[in-house]
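Q: Could you fold this chain for me?
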Amino acid sequence: MNLQYQRPGSSMRPVLLGKMKAAFALVFAMFLIAANTYAQNPEVRKAFRLVDIEQPSKGLAALEQMASSTPSSYNLYYLGLAQLRLGQKDKALANFEKGIAANDKDGLNYAGKGHVRLIEKNPTDAKANLDKALQVSKSKDVNVLKAVAEAYLTDTKYLLDAINLLNKAAGINNTDPEVHMLLGDAALIQNPQNAGPAVTAYEKAGRVDTKYAKPHYKVGKLYQRAKNNDIAVGYYEQAIKIDPDFAPAYKELGQIYYLNKEYEKAVQAAEKYMSITEKPEEAKFQLAFFYFGAKQYDKANTIFQEVTTNPNVPAVAYKYYALSLVQQGKAAEAVTMYEKYFQKAKQEDITADDYAEYAKVQLESKTPQGDSLANEYFAKAIQMDTAVGPDVLSLHAETLLKRKKFPQAIEAFKDLMASRKQVLSQDLYNIGRAYYMNEDFVQADSAFTELAEKQPNMTVGPLWAGRARQHIDSTGTQGLAKPMYEQVVEKASTNPEKYKKDLIEAYDYLGTYTLQIEKNVVKSKEYFQKILAIDPTYERAKEFMKQLNAPAPKG
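A: Sure. Below is the predicted structure, expressed as structure tokens.
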């Protein structure tokens, strides 16, 4: 034994120094075991954080660099584990094999290889490797226990084995957050309908590592799954507070805000998510809907235009692109998108609202066939759902009236009026005009008379009723229209300038009737003079006055 230099009078120093070195060596060895047993390498944790925040290429690059510079069984296992979680099974297996070759006394890579074999549905080889992992580590290495348990969680037949191993790991080190995370996963697999134990385990993981965002995110997901979004938001916000770059939390927040119609918040969350994740293209489609909800139609259409070039895009993209184009006043383009939507969508997915919105777009397109197509699709919407709403029924009926499809318009207005709890004045006016144009003057008079009663201060009801009655009283001898035109005069006289045309029409009828039927020349002159006071150029009044003022023929 080589002794240290001994000063005079220090005969016991070599012995004491030797004992101290032995004690230090034991403590150091225990420290190394503890480091391997109780915690991952901080650099490995950083790499897996990158995977968790959806930057897997950066995480893999860090793990590859570690495995390359120090090809230990430990580094090779965690590189393989990351690859396995990312679906790179063959690469993972190659690294596990290298890890076993580097140190066949380390159970980690046996666990990794067994994990691969379970995924490959090779339980015999899997069990042999997983048992080997536990054997060489003597079931005392927490990292190995976690690795074997994670492998077992891929097959429910081994769920209890996984739970037993995780409980054993927790008994060795109850402050390892990953143990509690895996226990949470196992609890959820064991009873998907009762998330309580999983929440407890995830929250324990968050408490033992207060800088770990993932446990809070996973609890948030459980509350979100239970449709308790208010609590879910709290957990997601906690995850972000711990790690401002925890991308998955922003993604879920965007979803919740969108469902809550908090569209601006949804946009902010989604934009933040896309700024972090390595695959923003996958979220771009969703962001277009958030922009649409937030009325940021330019941004929405930029994305919709891009994604609809993909032949595999869902049909709903065409529909919302059309709706967004409408908001920008681009009806012709919206028509094209709706047509693509109807071509691509499954018939069972098309709703009455889809037909109705397309019909509205056709009206706005101002194309020659727009009105007829609008009626066609309004009719489809109404046939599919008779409770489509009065706006659809009204547009359908008004468009038929505009197209001079009077019998169909009458029926459509009847349907509209039947759908309301109380008939509107506008309904009476519209159906009255439809009857009038269809030369059903009795029904027209009925509608306009009811309108006059409903709106006693307006001229429109008695004016149109007077016109209808003139047709009913074709000889003009009954004076059916007289009381209606007298009402017009009474109502219009309150604002002669506004109701100039109505007054002229009323005075014209009354003057003519008074002269021809009542033979009252003086009264007739008064009516025609009133017309000329309003409009001195009115030819009929001028002609009547000329005749009335002419001297009586002699003889």
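A (continued): Confidence is low (pLDDT under 50) at residues 1-38.
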